[in-house]
Structures are given as structure tokens and as C-alpha cells.
Amino acid sequence: MLGQAPMKNSLLLLLMSVCFFGKSQSYSSNRISLVSFVNPQTTGGIGTDQRKYSGCWGWYQTSTNKEYAIVGSSTGTYFLDISNPGFPNQCDYVPGKSGCTWREIKSYQNYCYVVSDDASPNRFQIIDMQYLPDSVHVVHDGTTYFERGHTIWIDKDKMYIGSETKLGGSHESMTIYSLATPSNPAFLRSLKTDFPSISYAHDMYVNNDTVFASCGNQGLYIFKYNSVGNTFTQLGSYINYSSGSAYNHASALTADKKTLVFCDEVPNFLPIRIVDVQNLANIIPQSTVIPYPNSTPHNPYVIGSRWAIISCYEDGLNIYDITNPASPVFAGFFDTHPQGGFSASSYNGYRGNWGAYPFFPSGLILAVDMQNGVFLLDASQTFNQPIGFTENAAMETNFQIYPSPACGHINIMSAKNVDATVKISNVLGEIVLTDDLTIFGKQKINVAQLPNGAYIVNLKTKNGSLTKKIIINNN
């Protein structure tokens, strides 16, 4: 079902969609609504696949009670005031290396730290955000600390850089810096000093100095940074978990520290993995999840100990209830990339939803699509569901019925081969269309003969039924 923005914002959203796509664009979704959409980069640095955006982050300014979306683009970093979420306002922009595929961002206090791993020449940036919403001030833009970093994580007052490259080309698998003086990081330690066998840390999730390091083809390793002695020690590992090659890409930990969710990214179509990490010396697999048969999960995020939010490239943003890690439930989705992926019945590679930020005090979710732009999403319909909603949620998320408004036809999509009966009723309860279908992928139903108005679509399978309200506008 099409995520609906508030009425007062619908014209703005339509105009922004028209500017980018050349026509109004529909986004299939379930339990996640579109609040607003912007596409700030209109020229320069656009890749051959129309890639314009990469990593993102969020920042809450306590002194003004404002929220900001920080978006990495192929030319620099955008700072957007989203305190009025229906009308995001660009406050400032900091240029960086142009033509970048990678840009990642984290914050500490009022400082923003931006790394990029694109080819030399490049640079590391530190940006002071205290003057927002007026402007930001760049306090470092150079190679003094390092030139390139693939990813960045900040835990308390320590900054971790994954795959750091110095000016001149020397490479570190992972480094750590003190942010005791936030505008002037102080180098502490290189992982390579203690563990030279780890050649590459693609990303890391760090909690209280415990580092879950995604080491690419080497797998997942867990290290502890010891402030006393300034050393790393190993606490555990999780390797050789895939029957084929798997590139351990990124992970996220539940608040109770019992469960880790991670994505492998390469090759395509690998599952999301959920493991028990209560005993780091004996990590136990819990479950694997495949959003759609050809989805490529990229970056995971976890809210509390219940919700896993996964950026899945061309299949957009997906939310899972992992209350029971051994049996996760697909709880909601928003497809930021309708031109590819399951909704389009075709996959074009590593495009679509790069990342998200689901930690704003307001509950908004920031999602960035590499080609399409910046989405602000409302997932309250998902997050407000009580534990135990799993049966209905399974039906609602195994099938998609869209668009609404519909013109000429509606689409019903299923990730599995399913026999179903579809009945469409008008507002008086009269059945105006019925059909028996075998659905796999996208199935079109012709509604061109129906008068304009509101209708109820009922989809029934042997496993349950699903009812959706749609609007038909055949003008």
C-alpha cells in the first residue's frame, strides 16, 4: 500500500517527486508512511548508475530541541533541519571529494565526523554543528590524521575507523582515537599492532569498548579495547558460517546485549543473520531471514531489543520484530527504490537504500536511497503493535497490494508461489470483482472498469486473509 503523507504536505511531496522522476512516484509500503522526501543534490558528482547518496546520520540539538538529518552525497555532506518533518530545510552543505561512492558519518557532542574511502586525493572532515540551524563550521578538512576511512563508529569518547588509509597509502585494518578533545582526535591504537592477521575491518559496532568487527571475507571477530595498557584482546569470533563465501559487512547489537544482527552484502542475495552473543566464546546461530528471494541486505540497525531495521538496497527499508530471535517476524517495509528490486521484478545490483537512522527522539526514521534521495518515514504503525501481532503481520508483509490511488490496475505481489482468491468490494459491501489467482512476483488486476472511489481488497490464502483499503482513480 502506498505510504500516505499528511494532507498539508501532499502537494510538496508531489512536486518533489515530479522534479526528480518526471512524474508522481508511488512507493509501496506496509506499516511505514512517507512523511517527506527531498533530493538536495541536483548536479555534479553523479555516478554512471545515477548514484548520488551514501551514508547518513542524525543529530539532536538539545539547546534548540531540533533534529537534523546529516546526509552523505557524492559531492559532500548535507545538513537538514527536520524539526518540521513535513518540510525539511537545508541549513548548510560542506563540500568534500567529488564523485564519491562512499561517505560515512557519525557524531560526538556537537561535532560531526565524516570519512570517505574513495581513491586519493581524499580527506577526513570534522564539522562543528553548534551553530545550527544557522550554519556549520568546518574545523578540519585534510589528511593530518588519515586520508581515507571506509567506516566510522563512535563509542563514548572514542572514535573507531574501519579500513584506514594514511596519506601515501599505508593501510590499517582498524584504528582508534580519543575524542577527549573532540576537535582534535588523538591516536590511541591500531588493531594491526595486536592482531596483524586481521587484514581488513569493513565496519564495527562498538559497545562499551567491546568491538564487533565485520572483517569482510575473514568473518566476524569480537575484540575488547583495554584502556589500561592500551591494547586489543580477542573475545571471540564467528567465521565459516556460510556454505559459500560471505563478506561480513555490518552488525548491530540489541540493548540487552544478547543478540547480534548482521548482514554479509557480498555476493548478492545472502540472508540477514541473527546470532546469540551472550557467550562471546560460543556464538550460537538463531535464525536467517531473506526479505525477498533476491534481496541484498546492506546495513542493520536495532532499536531496543525488539526491532531490527535493515537497509536492503533495491528492496528498501525492512523492519523485523526479533522479540524471539529464533523466529523473527517481517513487521513493515518501505520501498525507497521502486525502479528496481522485488517490486519491479528485476534487480540491477547494488543500488537503492544504502542506510538509515532510526534513533531520533521523535521516532522518525531517516532513510537514504543512493539514486532517489532522502526519505523521512513514520513507522509508528509498526512500532505500536503489541507483541503477539505476528500472525496478521505475516500476511500483511508477505503480500503487497498497491498502488493507491490506482489507475487502470492494482498490483498484488508475493515472495512465494501462492494460490489466492481476490475479492474487491465497494463501500456498500457489494463485491464488484472476484478472481482466483496463482501469485508469484507481481500480479496485475485490471480495475479500469470500476468507477472512481474507495474499495476494499480482500486477499485470501490457505494461511489466512488480508484486507486493504485502496482508492481507484481511473482519470
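^ that was protein a. below is b, sequence first then the C-alpha cells
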Amino acid sequence: MVGQDPMTNRKRTLLILGGTGDALHLARATEEKWGSELRVIYSLAGVTHNPARTVGEVRVGGFGGDEGLARYLRDQKIDFLIDSTHPFSTQISRHAALAAAATGTPRCALLRPPWQAEAGDHWHEVVDMAAAAMLVPKLGSRIFLSVGTRSLQFFSELREIWCLVRLITPLETPIPLLRAKFVMGRGPFDTASERRLLEQHRIDLVVTKASGGEATRGKIDAARTLGLPVVMVRRPDPPPGEAVGSTDAALSWLMKELKS
């Protein structure tokens, strides 16, 4: 068995830190490739209610920092760790790196490449959300704010700005925006539907993160076709360590580790 520890005959265990489409794809591909030969635990932070369905064991909730995650790695006898959280989830990625180092657990980050500006794009790149909020009034008055609910607070003082915000699930607490409309939706979103959304609400500026991936790039392509400016928040630097840019590359890393 490829997933069996040759020293103890114990089935080896992979922990996937998930919450992204890439992580979901990885969990399903791992199950399809190794099935009963490898124990796979798929971990979710629990921020999103009613998450997309996955396979295998699912763990929901935080770990309690890097020390809590290190303790979990030891208790569950985790052999491999793949961090496939959102590229802007810096805290959990930092905790994963520290916990893996403390326990000697092989770790790999699955980081999809960020979007790259193309001909016809009108991007204004900024270093963080605070800088994005400062720039918005200079570029538009009706914005599509696609930055995640935790970042909406940075735009709470923009009194002359109207915001369109898309949610995956309804929030339990009020959103701190003075003038806003909320729509529901879960990706992927294609370019045509994103263009209709922007035109319907007379959007003149898109604000988003350099998240990368195909599921949500439709708004970027739609903004290009409409000639709209985009405020693009740069991706933070990941913690040091091995990283790959695709599910296939993550599977190859895991295969190499399983054979070692």
C-alpha cells in the first residue's frame, strides 16, 4: 500500500487545510487516486456556512494557533500537510508553517498563481485594503466590492460611495457599509454573467484581491470588456517553504513524499 507507513504498517494521514476550490479539487483527486490506502482529513475554518461538499473526513473549526495545530498534528499522527487555504489567509498559513516545522511534518502550500494584467486592463495595484479604501473615491462612485466580508470594515467610512457586495451565505451580523446592496451567489462566475451584473448596477469601479484562479476571474475579464478601472490588492508574501501552483503539482509532491 502506497499510503502505509513501512515501519509501523499504519495507514498514513494527510491533512488538507481547505476552504478553496483548489483544496476541494485536491481532496477529491486524492480520494480518487488513493482511496482507502490513505487517510485524508479535510479541514475548514468554519467561516462559511453550508460549504461545498467534499469527501472523506471533514474537520471544522480553528486549531488554537500554531501550538494548537502542532498538537493536532501529533495527536492525529499527521504525516503530510498541504496548505490550500486562500492566498490572503495569512494567519493560518503562518501557523501551518510553524506547526509543521515544530513537528517535522512535511508541508507544501498549494498557491494558485495571481492574475496578471492583460492588454486593455486598467489596474491600480495597492499594497493592502487600507490603501484600496483611500484610492476608491478618486476612481469611482459605484463600486463592486469583491474583497471578502472580513475586509468590508476598511470601506465603512466612504460616505459618498455606493457598494455592491456579493455574499455566499447571509451574514449574522450587520455589514459596516453606509450605502450598499447585497446579492447572493457562489462561484464559478463566467464573464458574461459578471458583465450583466456590472451593467445592471451601473458599476464604475471594481475592487478586488489578487486571488487568482478561474472561478472568480470573470469579474476581471468583464471589467476589461467594459473599460472599467480595477483596484487590485496585491497578494501578501507566503511563509517560506515548498509551494506549488496547481492540484496536479500538489499530487506529485504527495506522491514523492509517500515514496520517501
